[in-house]
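Forum: Protein Structure Q&A
Topic: Joint prediction for protein chains with partners

I've read a bunch of threads here and the consensus seems to be that you should model interacting components together rather than docking separate models afterwards. I'd like to see that in practice. Below is the full input, 440 residues plus whatever partners are listed. Could one of the regulars post the assembled result?
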Amino acid sequence: MKKVSESTIARLSVYLRLLTELAAAGVTTLASGELARRCGTSAAQVRKDLSFFGTFGKRGLGYSVPELTEALRGILGLERRWRVALIGAGKIGAALMAYQDFRRQGFDIVAVFDADPARVGTEWQGLVIQRDADLETSLQGIDIAIVAVPASAAQGVVNRVVAADVRAILNFAPTKLDVPEHVAVKTVNMALELEGLSYALVNEARGARRVTSRPAASRG
Amino acid sequence: MKKVSESTIARLSVYLRLLTELAAAGVTTLASGELARRCGTSAAQVRKDLSFFGTFGKRGLGYSVPELTEALRGILGLERRWRVALIGAGKIGAALMAYQDFRRQGFDIVAVFDADPARVGTEWQGLVIQRDADLETSLQGIDIAIVAVPASAAQGVVNRVVAADVRAILNFAPTKLDVPEHVAVKTVNMALELEGLSYALVNEARGARRVTSRPAASRG
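Posted by a regular:
Agreed with the consensus. Here's the joint model:
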């Protein structure tokens, strides 16, 4: 099988979200063109994305909403529940704990760790904070680790997460992480997203295409 | 000028972050191969990314760290400060207010809005919460709006943000937003990132490539 790109997987998530909404509204079939339009892509792209995983839909009739929903849930690993550990009981961590959508989609935050000895043993967001010094042993049975620690601490934490045989990491630290190839990492970097916006404001949204006349600023 | 891809812009942010660290450590020049290696990409990619914006570096000598830093800051729109409004004074909003990196990089959250009348007028994270009912007028002078409201409220908020002539939006609501072409939107969707991880756990990390034998689940 061809390696499936991250952007295909992201679109599958978007398709699934739309299908879930439509199912709630009582829609039972959907043309690929309509699915594409409502997800901001093309029908050809939808068909290509799905083609990696089998044959879906019926020519002229479109997709069965419940069948495609079920297939996408299977592809995305959402037919089971996942045990998630949160490392770093700070404000980002608190926001994640409060984020109802996680639980709704099968991701249960079942353990929380922090480096601050004063906080270890205290209750926080319904869980007791554990010490993060011995993650290697305390992450047994955890599927996904959320790393919400300062950038300077992140790689050290991640090394211990990997040693605990956790193979999926959601990283909120603004730093690049080195992990073995069998470990999947997704980084949520809000500063980087903001820089994408300031880039757009300076270079595109103003319509001036200023950079075309930028001199070779640092030659020599 | 060729349209610069979002992934190029994201890599420029990563390059800048590395250069800033190296400058703090006293490094003054850097080979493109070393920049590439430490950012997890190739030297050819680094050169291609930079080529959109001019000619940088000197053959055999590499890049001047301070000059490339300054050029990247200019390209990314980080040589000035940006006025940011936060819409939605919830937990995600609180995490963002506490995120020191935003201010350090030139993004000042100068106003906060909420739909809850009981909260309007109260102090929150050092700002007074304003009512979000008249965003069209109260967003004067704002460069970037952060939308941290429930999915069902997001498009309505965004319509008013656009009417206020704000041209950059950082969206935390798990929904697709319709905006005019001159408005830049970045969405931070943590549920989607988690689904990318569960996909990896089911389909890749276990090494079984299970999907190759998946039947055509919803044909017919």
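Residues 82-191 of chain B form a domain with the Rossmann fold fold (CATH 3.40.50.720).
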